[in-house]
Amino acid sequence: MHSPKQYHTPLSLSQNFIRSPQLIEKILKKSSLPRKFPIVDIGAGKGMITRTLLPEFEKIVAIEPDKQLFEMLEKEFQGRVNVVKGDVRFMKIPLYEKYSMIGNIPFAYTADIVKKVLFGSSNVQSAVLFMQRDAAYRFLGQPHDKESMQSLRVKFEWNADILHRCKREDFIPQPRVNVVVVEFSRKWQLSIQEARIVDNLLAFMFGGWWKTAAEGFYAFLPKALVNRELSLLKVPLNATIRELPFELWEAIFRLLEKNPASAQKIKGASMVLKSRQDTLQKRHRTTYRPQEKTRDSAKRSFSGKFRPKKSGFSRKSRSPR
Questions:
Q1: C-alpha distances in angstroms, 66 versus 13, 28, 43, 107, 266?
Q2: Sequential DSSP letters for 285-316
Q3: Whole-angstrom Cα distance, residue 308 to residue 294?
Q4: For the chain, what percent of residues have pLDDT higher than 90?
Q5: For the chain, what is the domain count?
Q6: 3-state secondary structure of 58
Q7: Measuring CA to CA, how many Å separate 237 from each of 13, 200, 212, 230?
Q8: Domain range holding 273?
Q9: For the chain, which residues score pLDDT lower than 50?
């Protein structure tokens, strides 16, 4: 089986090394990383983070894809750190117990790495990541940004917030974007079945062209149940999908768990949306932040609207209206 293609990105976009160990010490003090668990340094680079972790963590794994940097790390930390050559996006972490992760991740691969960290293994209990600010906001959602599929998916399993706001001069070379440190702490581990329901729910709602969130929910849940939840959380009927509080999404998920017939109506939505997205041209996450889609732009991006049928979720696309 062939590994996905690994594309090279200019140094200014992918590698910005931390200038001072004092910054890492400050972040470790602010964080709630459990010292009893092993910790993985993602993209260890020149070893600045790994070096700072040594006095506080007994078991450390440092992952570095660059051959020259890997050899330098292996020589310096021989016998004290398990230095592994590889790209965290495409490898299995060599740990079989609960562990934490930390890393100054390449900005060009933020989405791929964050998804691997948060959803790649149920053993990951916490993570502290240096991230491009705008990308971090998209993963955090409210109160930093409007909710997205990414931010909502994260909130079903993780508590997350900004731990520290970095200065550009904290890095060599200085990045052209703002950088923040985000801490993720696991709050829940979804079962396979629960994860499918969540993924289908988010795909059905964000993949459709609903004028309001209520319109989308009515497509697979009884109107009375939806209105009750909206009323309890004081959410207006005209609220859009990205304006909804996470508590409402959680309530809708619980309703789907209790109503298998409703869950059946959105079955397969995640697969359909993924196949549509795979046909779109992938845009660079670091240099481009897409504007909020208008109804017309959504029509150009997707071939049809999700419409449930009595027999279940329809995989056939419809022509845009």
A1: 16, 25, 9, 16, 43
A2: TTT--PPPPPHHHHHHH-SS---EETTEE--S
A3: 23
A4: 78
A5: 2
A6: coil
A7: 43, 22, 7, 7
A8: 192-313
A9: 1-13, 284-306, 308-321
Residue pLDDT, tens place only, 84-126: 999 999 999 989 899 999 999 998 999 999 999 999 999 999 9
User: What is the rounded CA–CA span in Å between residue 57 and residue 312?
Assistant: 50
Give the C-alpha separation, 7 to 289, whole Å: 20
Cα-based angle 242, 244, 246 (whole degrees, multiple of 5): 110
Tokens of 85: 């050559």
User: What tens digit of pLDDT does each residue of 200-251 get?
Assistant: 999 999 999 999 999 999 999 999 999 999 999 999 999 999 999 999 999 9
pLDDT in the model for residue 282: 54
DSSP type of residue 47: S
Q: Are residues 175 and 294 in the same domain?
A: no
Other C-beta atoms closer than 10 Å to the C-beta of 103 total: 22
The residue among 89, 83, 93, 102 whose CA lies nearest residue 35 is 102
Mean pLDDT computed over every residue of the chain: 86
Cα separation of 224 and 118, whole Å?
Answer: 35
Provide φ and ψ at 148, rounded to 5°: -135, 175
CATH of residue 88: 3.40.50.150
What are the C-alpha distances in Å from 200 to residues 50, 111, 139, 273?
Answer: 39, 20, 18, 9
Are residues 102 and 199 both part of a single domain?
no
Q: Is residue 321 part of a domain?
A: no
Q: How far apart are CA 105 and CA 108, in angstroms?
A: 9
In this prediction, residue 7 carries a pLDDT of 41
* Domain-embedded: residue 173: yes
